[in-house]
Specification:
It contains one helix and seven strands; from the N terminus they run E-E-E-E-H-E-E-E. The protein is mostly beta strands.
Length: 75
C-alpha cells in the first residue's frame, strides 16, 4: 500500500495500548514483531505524549517519511 500523501510505501503494523509497568502509552510496532512486553518497551514507537491513556490494538499502515498513519476501520 502506498501513502496517499507522499506516494511512498507504507509499513503495515499495529497500534497497541495498555498498561504495562508504570508506562501507559500507545505504541506502534510493525506486523513482523510480536507485541511482547520487551518488544513494546524496546522497539515500540511511542505515539502519545500522554502516557496515562490506553487503547485497544488497531491495525494500521505507517509512512516513515511524512509521519502519517492510515487506519482502515473495517479491518
Amino acid at each position: 500500500m502506498d501513502c496517499p500523501y507522499c506516494g511512498k510505501s507504507l509499513i503495515p503494523g499495529f497500534i497497541y495500548g495498555g498498561s504495562y509497568g508504570v508506562n501507559h502509552s500507545l505504541r506502534w510496532l510493525p506486523e513482523t514483531k510480536k507485541p511482547t512486553l520487551a518488544e513494546l518497551e524496546l522497539e515500540g514507537e511511542v505515539l502519545n505524549k500522554n502516557r496515562f491513556s490506553s487503547q485497544p490494538e488497531v491495525k494500521c499502515h505507517k509512512c516513515t517519511y511524512c509521519r502519517k498513519i492510515i487506519i482502515d476501520l473495517d479491518e
